[in-house]
Description:
InterPro entries: Epithelial_Barrier/Signaling, Ig-like_fold, Ig_E-set, IPT_dom, NIDO_dom
GO biological process, one term: cell-matrix adhesion
Number of strands: 15
Pfam families: NIDO, TIG
Organism: Lingula anatina (Brachiopod)
Largest sheet: 4 strands, antiparallel
Structural class: mainly beta
Number of domains: 2
Strand order of the largest sheet: 6-7-11-10
Strand content: 25-35%
Domain NIDO: 1-89
Order of helices and strands: EEEEEEEEEEEEEEE
Number of helices: 0
Shape: elongated
Distance between the termini: 49 Å
Amino acid sequence: RNTFQSIMVTDGRSSFVIFLYNEIHWTTGTASGGTQDGLNGVAAQVGFNAGDGKNYYAVNGSRTGAIINIGSMSNVGQPGKWVFRTDDLDIKDPECNLNGKADISLNPNKVQLKGGDVIFISGPCFKKSMDIRCQFGSVQVTGSFESVLRVSCVVPPNLNPGVTNVGLSTDGGKTVTNIQTPLTI
């Protein structure tokens, strides 16, 4: 028995597919030349295929015996988790291969006046080694790395009610990029 899950998500602008692999015990059916234990033969492929012979993406190790280890591999630094941006014919692996040019989004975009809410900032090029800071107006707070796709910050107390611009820094506050979605307090 194999245990895995496929999740498709979108915010209306960007779409992603998340593959979660837990336990993988076989890779090949008998129709693909596999043995009774589900091994050997032509192994399973992990990825996408539009069926047109041109638009496809396969994870390294697909169609080989190595795919049995998919539960311990990842493209986002979490064993068994694979995330792909799929809103274009060109499937994008979210590793930092976009030369820093990526959509950055904020969720939630409404928080309580008292502070303490956690906001998540998404964009496909975060690294654990980055010194994450969020700027709320003139107040800057330290953020946390969540994954290659997401960081988080706790909203500080005593911000002025209304709309506040949020900025993100990955270099300890030296440079700040404004996030297009404002935060409503």
